[in-house]
Every structure is written in C-alpha cells, then in structure tokens.
Amino acid sequence: MKVIYTDSLVIGGGLAGLRVAIAAKQRGHDTIVLSLIPAKRSHSAAAQGGMQASLGASIKGVGDDEDVHFGDTVRGSDWGCDQDVARAFVNTAPKAIRQLTAWGVPWSRVQRGDRQVVINGKKVTITESDDAHGLINSRDFGGTKKWRTCYTSDGTGHTMLYAMDNKAIELNIPVHERKEAVALIHEEGVCKGAIVRDLITGKLTAYVAKATTIATGGYGRIYAISTNSVISEGIGTAIAMETGLAPLGNMEAVQFHPTAIVPVGILTTEGCRGDGGLLLDKDGYRFMPDYEPEKKELASRDVVSRRMIEHMRKGKGVPSRYGDHLWLDITLLDEKHIRKNLREVDEICHYFLGIDPVKDYIPVRPTQHYSMGGIKTNYKGESIGLKGLFSAGESACWDLHGFNRLGGNSVAETVVAGMLVGEYVADYCETTELKINTKTVEFFLEQERVKISDLLNRETGENPFKLKKEMQQIMMDKVGIFRNHDDLSKAVEELKVLNQKAKNIALRNRISSSNPELVEAIRVPKMIKLAQCVAYGALLRTESRGGHAREDFPQRDDKNWLKRTLAYWKDDNADIPEIDYEPLDIMKMELPPASRGYGDDKTTPHPDTEKREKEIEKLLKDHPGIDRIQTSELLNPVEVPERYQGKNERVGRGFK
Amino acid sequence: MSNEEKRTLTFEILRYNPQIKGDTPKMKKYEVVEAPGMTVFIVLNEIREEHDPSLQFDFVCRAGICGSCGMIINGEPKLACRTLTDTYPKGIITLLPLPVFELIGDLSVNTGKVMRQMSERVESWIHDKDAENVDLTRIEERMEPEVAEEIYELERCVECGLCLAACATKRMRDDFLGAVGFMRLARYAIDPRDKRSGKEFYDIIGDDDGVFGCMTLLGCEDYCPKDLPHQTQIAYLRRKMALGK
Ligand code: FES
C-alpha cells in the first residue's frame, strides 16, 4: 500500500488551489498540490477579462470602494449570496490585488491625460489625473456601478496564474502532475486525504493529510457546449459529494455567458462589451437598449443572456448551419485597442472563425460558462458536513455569487478565497493531529481498486463516451437558460436511467495504465450524479433567481425561496440526491432584498425584509455620525484573519 | 465549404505506449470526414470516441491559451487545438509527438516537468527581499504604463514547448536552456520589481548552455504561437551579458 503523508493536501493547481497551498506553506506546513495537468495550464489562465477590486484609481472608478463593490455583488447574486462572505471578500480584494502586484503581475496601469474610449456606442474622451498615473487601471464590466475590473491587457488570468505558480515554485511547493483524486478518505466525519490515481502509470496512492482542500474548478462540461476547459468536469466536487457527508450548494445555479463564439463555444471576453462593443441582430439592429434601457449590453450576464434568447425567439437571430446566433460588434473600437487589449479575441477570431474583428462581426450565442454551485462551505471554506475538508474557488459554494456571478468576480474570488481559506487551513493544521487508522486507508484504497478492476474485467456493457454525450445533450436541451417543469422532469427521469447505465460501463481498451477510456469511465458516473443535482435542484426550485430562470415561475420569490439548496448523495444506490434547504437570514443582512433594477420587479417579498429595513433605519439613527466603515461593521460584522485586516488606501481619498 | 464537397481526411498518427511492455512505435492511419471549422482537436477526439479509445493526447483550453497541445503537424510544431484541417489542401495530415520531451504515450509528452525545471533554473520569480513585507493596505507601487506593457509582452509565453521542439541546439544538447527560458529571464530582467543584479542574471545564462549556445537558427521565432520576439530578446540578453559582466 503506497501512502504519502502531508499536512495540507490541495487538489487542483489553479489560482485558488495554489493560493491555499502558498498560505499553508508560508505558515510552515508541509503542502502538496495535486493536478491533472501542469499547474500553469489550469483553466484560471483562460480568464481574459479581469479581476474586480475597488481600487478606484482610474477616473471612471473614482468614488468606488468596498461598499459599492459589495452592493454590486449582492444585487448581481439576486440576493442569493452569503453577505458575510461577500463583505469579507470585498474588503480583502484590494489587498489581494496589491499582493499579486508585489508577486509580479504586470497589471495595466493608468496613463495620465486624455484617452479615447467608447461608451454607449460613442467615442468619448476621458482624462486621467496626474495623481493616478502609474496606478492599476480598471475597465468597465457588466453589472457594476464603477469601472472596477483590473486587468493585464487581454491576459489577466494568464498573468495571475503565472505569478501564483511562480510564487509556489519559489516556495518549493511540490505539484504532483497528472494525478487524479478519485475518492476522499474519511473517518468519523473527518476528511483525512484522498485516493489518487496516477494518470500515466495507473497506480493508486493514498495521500493522507490533516487538511484537504478541493479547488478543481467548475462542472461546465456536464453541458455539451461550454466555454470551460475540457478538464472542467467537476470531479473534485463529485468526490466530496460521494462521501455522502459533504453537501453541494445551489447546484442549479449555472451561468451562461452572453458571448461565446458559434459553434465551438470559446469565450470572447466581457471586456468586448465593457470596452464598448455592441450586440446586433440579423438586421444589424442594436436590440439591448430596447430591453434594458439603462445598462444595455452591460446588464448582468444572466440578464443579457436571457434577452438574447428572447430576441432570437422573436425570429431576430442570424440563421446558420449551427442554429441561430447574434452578432458581437467591436468594429467601432480602435484597431490598436483590439490588437492589444483584446488580442486574445483577435486571435480566436482569426484561428477559429477566419475573420478579422476589426472589420467583421463575431457570431456569438449564450453558452454555459460558470458554476455558482459547488461544495457548500462556511465562511472559512470548510465543508459544512465533513470536517477537515475545505474548498475554494469555483469548486466551492462559499457563496459569494448566489445565483449569478459578476464578471471579474471569479478570478477575484480565487485569490481572495485562497488567501482567507488558506489561513483557516493553516489554523486547522496547527490545531489538528494527524491520526488515522490504517484500516481506514486500506478500506478506501481497496474500494477504488475494486471499482477499477471491475471496469477492466467487464466484457460487455455501456460505452462511457456515449453516456457522457447523452448526459451533455440532456443538460443542453432541458436544463439550459430557460427552464420549465416538463423539460426538467424529463431530464431528471432520463438522468436516472443514465445513472443506472453508468454502473455497467465496459471498456474496449482494457489496460490499467494510461488509458483515456478508463479515465472517462471513472469520471462519467460522477458527472451524471452532478448533472442530476443540477437538474433535480432546478426542478424543485419553483421561482426564478439570477441564472435560474423558470418560464413557469418567472418571478423571484423571497417568501418561499430565499434559501440555499443543499444536495446530499447519501445512498450509493439512489438515482437522485436528497435535497435540503438552508434559509438565508434577512435579519442579518447588510443589504436586505430589493429589486435588481432590471425589467419590472414582481418579486414576492419576504416579511422579514421590511422588518430588517426598519431595524437598519433605527440602528443608523441610534449611531449618528458613524462613517461608512463603522456602518458596515455595525450592520455586518465579519471575521477576517488578522493579517488581512485594516482599511484600504485609495488615491485622493486616503483610508476613508 | 458546402455540404457537397465534404472531404475524407487521412490522419497518420504515431502510436506508441511505453507503459506497455514490448510495444514499439508505429504509424497508424485513420480516416475522418471533414466538417466545417474542424480543428485537429475535434478530429483527435472523434478518433478516440469512435475508432480507438486508447489514443493519447493532451488538450485543456482547446482555445490556444494554455499551451497543452503542441505536436508536430505535417512536419511543423504547432498548437493542435487551433490548427484547422482546411489548412491542408491534400487532406493528408501526419501527427507526431513533440521531440525533446519525455514521451508519455502517442501524442502526449511531459512538458510540465521540463517547464518546472526551467522555472527553477532561471528562478522565475520576483527577487525582492521586501516583497513579503509590503503593507497591503497601502496604495501599490507605481509603474510606468509602458513598462507594464513591455513586461506583459514577454510574459505572454504559454510554455507550450514549440520553441524547444523547433530548436536545433536543444535537440543536440539537452542542457541547453532554450528560448522559453531566455524569454522568461528577459521578462524578469526588465521588471523593476526584480532586484537581481546583472551578475546574478549572468550566472544563470552566461555560458554555452545559456544564451551563448544559441546558433541563431531561430526556429523558436518561426514557430512561437504567441509571436514572441525571441530574436530580439536573445540579442538583448547577449548584449547585456557581454557588457554587464
Ligand atoms: S489546448 Fe490549450 S493551447 Fe491547445
């Protein structure tokens, strides 16, 4: 039996995983990162657009601060997020970006003087102040009141990931590449590490650890077309679920990005619209202002995606052999700007579409993009059902995003959660002794060994590639942007059937070492279960909130649904998860539920909303003259590790 | 391309699994019906799913961003995910794994190991004793916008390894650092946040395994999928080394 011991085991080598590993290592704990691939190839690198942090240096960001960022995030989430988490996040984001600056990210900087930008389809000159010269710049993104998205030309995620991985290399943190965690080891409700398969030799190893962190990203690949990397299959999330102890939160909360190219689904960044790009229909008509006169193309992602589908349903889509699509028009931007600040988009258009975005419109369609759901954790990033198991980044439902994530809040979450959760992981390592019964380790190792040898010995059965395709198609057709009872019930029934079939997978290539078909056979049953959590959660949630849009229940219903879905997979023989709900407590909210400001608000209010509003009014009256920071401490006191406390300085404003 | 003129493409792919005792390298042929917008990524997945589930290759982003999918396509090192099949009018496409790297199987090679070693060798991080003591509540240190842009231009490398596969020196001498390493070093050399001295940089690359070993054949520049200015950077480093010693 091969066993490797460490203090802090991190599964996933993207931004969040590396940041947690760095935190634990800097606090003196032995740390190992497991990754399917070389860490620098993680999906974090694909984030082209930027990272939200309220630095407020650029003239269009002046007046920005933690409070404005907080409000945007909560409204963006359609009040589904955890406001304690959101508050800790917005307060820490400026520190996170400043730390990354010291670690080498070459953020784009403010240039003093005049510059031309495109706002609402028109060229406008803005003037940057002398004071801001050389500070980190920011651009406009959807659903934000200020230009808050900090960026490195077109390669924000790439430069952040490179700085992070380089820091990990400096600290001598080992990254065990081409390793896949296939099960968690746990004993008496405490996680003790993972069973890991080497993707080259096929050998199984037990990694035993005090703390285990899952940071494996989203589960976008349960859909046939997704902007996600091909490895974003949610396996980390699934192995947590398969313990039966760790619940998954809000799995039905799936984000569709408005502008992925047709047909392959590669993303063109929100920066295209942030920098002035427009959406046009088959007549070349700019339709978004008709639907959303205020925010237009820069409404929240879920809103823009739905409006695009609505518009195509009216027959305004551009027909193509791959179905209808719309146009993204960035031809009104400067050629220089496109070649430099949107170069990734330029390259993608060139290589995958054979067009030049300086002259041509880009064919786009809303496409699966982000998983708000994931391993439900508390504010410390620890699973609420399995001690010693942590999660950070997209794989977690820390619950920063609720039912819709703002653009630029995802890479921001990875590093901020990595910083904060990393400290709690280190605390946990400090106070925990590594004790485990070897029988437990043997049990889990043997369980996985048997599963694999069953797969290798079965003579006939299901083809794992085909099962996956079927699952992906069900999700596309029946659990997409607009959802309804009939389709969702069908999806749940069909996924039940697939879940049974997945127990009977047989391989054509029956070898235990590096074998892509075996990898698929191990993953697909897990993915089907995740898909079922999404479909079943969506069927039960009879309201619309953020990215979860029910045609048969088009309104948000705070009275009955201001609660988080928790999906447990306790019974290995079950075909659907057990569902529980965790209410969101309005009486603790800094920002009680209100309208997001899109379309007519027909929300069914919760009785506590009015109560809390009155209470806040009274609290503020009782504390006259307090500043904004004292106000947020009064209404929403949150815990942040000591080293990341303190007010954030801004140019022209100091620490106020 | 319209529906009528669908081509049948012939793929010849090197097959070899070193994990299987007694296996030997051989070329295998596969036929695939071309679809519009088809990339080598799409073809390889189709072959794996429909014809041969044992076929090994590496893709992650499938968008030309992550650098996973370098291979030799009709004799040239390229990123397979963004290579369209219609760039080959004859419809015959040969795929070989990248040389220089350890073969994992078929078209999959271990670039990760080499890149980590490279990063350790050039100490690919900001060297500044004070970096950890930065007060994170304060306004960040200023940087001239052009300097930030210049650094980014050199940091666009995706560690795909095509430059090494295209490098005659590297193929003869395993210890040769190669363009990817020079580019990384140049990126830190122009970064004001990195406090290393000229001498410290020299110690890393001032020999024949470093920048003076380059024969200036510039396969790196020809095949870099990110169009990085390798030639300029190698010349820059040489000049800096020669003057700065
Ligand atoms: S798969 Fe990422 S560059 Fe080709």
Polypeptide structure, described:
The complex is a heterodimer of chains A (656) and B (245). Chain A is an alpha/beta fold and 656 residues long. Chain A is built from 18 helices and 22 strands. Helices cover 36% and strands 18% of the residues of chain A. In chain A, a hairpin with a 2-residue loop joins strand 4 (113-119) and strand 5. The longest helix of chain A is centred in the C-terminal third of the chain and has 25 residues, at 516-540. Chain A is globular. In chain A, 61% of the residues are buried. The mean pLDDT of chain A is 96. By secondary structure, chain B is of the alpha+beta class. Chain B folds into two domains: 8-109, Ubiquitin-like (UB roll) (Roll); 122-243, Alpha-helical ferredoxin (Fumarate Reductase Iron-sulfur Protein, Chain B, domain 2, Orthogonal Bundle). Helices cover 33% and strands 14% of the residues of chain B. In chain B, the strands form two sheets. Chain B has a five-stranded mixed sheet. Chain B has a two-stranded antiparallel sheet with strand order 6-7. The longest helix of chain B is centred in the C-terminal third of the chain and has 15 residues, at 230-244. Chains A and B meet through helix 3, helix 4, helix 10 and helix 15 of A and helix 2 and helix 3 of B. The structure holds FE2/S2 (inorganic) cluster.
Assembly of the depicted chains = heterodimer
Small molecules bound in the structure, each named once: FE2/S2 (inorganic) cluster
Q: Roughly how many Å apart are the termini of chain B?
A: 58 Å
Protein chain pair with the most extensive contact, residues per chain:
A-B, 80 and 65 residues
Broad structural category of chain A? alpha/beta
